[in-house]
Amino acid sequence: MFNKYFTTLSLLFLCTSIDGNIIRGRIILPLSNIKLPSTARLLVEVQDTTMADEKTITLGRQQIENLQQFSINYEIEYQKESVKPSHQYSMSARITLQKQLLFINDENINADIENGDNPLTVDIPVVQVSEVPDDQSQPPPFTDEPSNRRWRELVGKTGEYAMEVIKRAGFTNVVIVQKDTPLTMDYRPDRVRIFVDDSGIVNQIPQNG
């Protein structure tokens, strides 16, 4: 009897220890009834964004296809052993059609996976960065040649979001510049530098040159 009880407890402990934690929620586009292309793809990730000047570490992701319309439910499983004390974790959501970005979250969405509930519920609002084509089998076309531009509206947005918006304007040489990065002083009308703070947020008006 004791051995059976001990075995049951051991199996229960094993199942509990190997199960991952869950983040779930909705991808939302407020005040919108846009119909999404069935060939579009949604990628949702939970990322360790503690070190803004280094590559983010992905703890878990989910890719969803056959999209219809907003809102879109997601659920990501991640291993609790990968969560480090006092680190900052954020959510990322992108909807693409082939290689063209259609929607992205333009603000930092915090995920309190260290102290929050399990499962943790986090809704992710996104913004539209390019038109959804009428012919849903084709990606949206790019715009005309680059011209002298300034993007005042991108101040306060994430560097990644700003890069996608500027590339949609026809600029291909777009770089995110971290604090204290050495720069050349040459003028290049086809180049746009996006200056960000330690949190990866745009803190100067991007412009080409």
Describe this structure in words.
The chain is an alpha+beta fold. It has 2 domains: 21-128, Immunoglobulin-like (Sandwich); 152-208, Trypsin Inhibitor V, subunit A (Trypsin Inhibitor V, Chain A, 2-Layer Sandwich), CATH 3.30.10. The chain has helices at 2-18, 159-168, and strands at residues 21-28, 41-48, 57-64, 72-78, 89-97, 100-104, 109-110, 120-121, 124-125, 127-128, 173-177, 191-195, 207-208. Strands 2, 3, 5, 6, 7 and 10 form a 6-stranded antiparallel β-sheet that branches. It is globular, with a radius of gyration of 21 Å.
Summarize the structure.
The chain is of the alpha+beta class and 209 residues long. The protein has two domains: 108 residues, Immunoglobulin-like (Sandwich); 57 residues, 2-Layer Sandwich (Trypsin Inhibitor V, Chain A), CATH 3.30.10.
Which terms summarize this structure?
single chain; about 210 residues; alpha+beta; Immunoglobulin-like; Trypsin Inhibitor V, Chain A; 2 domains; six-stranded antiparallel sheet; 2 helices; 13 strands; about 30% strand; serine protease inhibitor; Pilotin; Prot_inh_pot1_sf; serine-type endopeptidase inhibitor activity; signal
Helix count, DSSP H or I runs of 4 or more residues = 2
What distance separates the N and C termini?
Answer: 78 Å
What general form does the structure show? globular
The average pLDDT value, as a whole number, equals: 80
CATH architecture of the largest domain: Sandwich
| Count of folded domains | 2
Strand content: 25-35%
Helix content: 10-25%
Structural class: alpha+beta
